[in-house]
Amino acid sequence: MYxxxxxxxxxxxxxFVERFMDSAAEADTVxxxxxxxxxxxxxxxxxRGAVVEQKKIVPWRFDAARNESLALIPAAADICCCVDLDExxxxxxxxxxxxxxxxxxxxxxxRYTWSFLPDGREGHVFWPDKIHKNGVYRxxxxxxxxxxxxxxxxxxxxTARGVQLDHHPDETKSRGQYLPLLELAVAxxxxxxxxxxYLGREYMYRGEWEKAIRELKRHLxxxxxxxxDERAASMRFIARCYRRLGRDDAAAAWYHRAIxxxxxxxxxxxxxxxxxxxxxxxxxxxxxxxxAAAIAERPATYITEGYAWGSLPWDYLSxxxxxxxxxxxxxxxxGRALSFEPENERLRENLALFGEKIKSxxx
Length: 363
What we know:
This protein is α/β, with parallel strands linked by helices and 363 residues long. The chain has helices at residues 17-23, 41-47, 62-70, 93-100, 178-188, 193-205, 209-221, 228-244, 248-261, 266-278, 282-294, 312-323, 327-340, 345-362; strands at 4-10, 29-34, 51-54, 79-82, 87-89, 107-113, 125-126, 131-133, 137-140, 146-149, 157-167.
């Protein structure tokens, strides 16, 4: 039996307290660093049994706050679970974690649903590793912070199957602080590939297309930028920016590069199929959407995007086959798309249209 502690940082998150504490109830201890709430977050947490300390972090950076929260964890704790208040474990997580944890384990991966679609289906899913052994880690980087191992020997990472964490964020919260912190992270370590990738992505999110292209290309030039999945994501984002700049020729070239970099990922194929769809290149749509659909296993990395793992590849495939006069193939692909979204009226209408066409040709 291990001693398990859930720890977190928060500010003005009173609306999440009950749900968070319910999900953390399987832990022995819950420790929270409040960084300046002016609502009743602290009172609510303490009323539910959490150990809460308050400290303002000036200047603000996430790694400094996380490291302060580490100091709240009891020395007797064996396993530490870093969770935000807008995240909730599903019941049974502790037993699943203890089954996976070994005497020499230092960190555990678990399944994480970062986003949900409007109909409740999962969107972005990956396997992070923010569950760790006590006393042998510290947090680093001003934003998109990561754990750095400080113990002796080598890390021992296990996959804790059955541990599921769900993210239900406050969509009204601004992400405005992310950009200056990412720019700080890159200034502190220009050679850090992950921070460069995140900064380029943030420029893209903000619609700063030229800045995004420059930084993402810089990411690809860094000696440490060797992970194919993340490199392919930078290439896709560059292509996405070129599309917004009206340069589909350049976008197509970058999509090709992304596919070549990581042919095991669906996302580059789906994105390129979308470009070809807009240009009514139906043979291309069928080929690249088909390549995406043929990839059956979703990778466990954060790089995957929900849209590529739902109805979209099959939807593109069905429309491509329709325009090529392959009506049975169009109907089959539309049926697969509809299995992901059974209430989608457009897909229903398409499937009916395909069926009528097949009948008319048979008659």
